[in-house]
Amino acid sequence: MSDLNRGIMKFKGADQPIVVLISAIIILGSVGFLIWWGLQTAYTF
């Protein structure tokens, strides 16, 4: 069992590269959206 198949992602195949890639895209996209939204709210461009 790899280390990626532990913790919050306790399902079979959680350490497959495609699952890790999709999770990373979702997380980074969410962070990027929050940064964009915060800048749009704080400053008027």
Mean pLDDT: 82
Number of strands: 0
Beta content comes to under 5%
Structural class: mainly alpha
Radius of gyration: 16 Å
Count every helix, treating DSSP H or I runs of 4 or more residues as helices.
1
Low-confidence stretches: none
Q: Which shape, going by the Cα principal axes?
A: elongated
> How widely separated are the two ends?
50 Å
The biggest beta sheet reads: none
- SSE arrangement, N to C: H
Please provide a written account of the structure:
The chain is 58% helix and 0% strand. The protein has 1 helix and no strands. It has one helix at 17-42. The mean pLDDT is 82.
Helix and strand topology:
Elements: H1 17-42
Keywords summarizing the entry:
single chain, 45 residues, mainly alpha, 0% strand, elongated
Task: Briefly say what this structure is.
This protein is about 60% helix and about 0% strand. By secondary structure, the chain is mainly α.
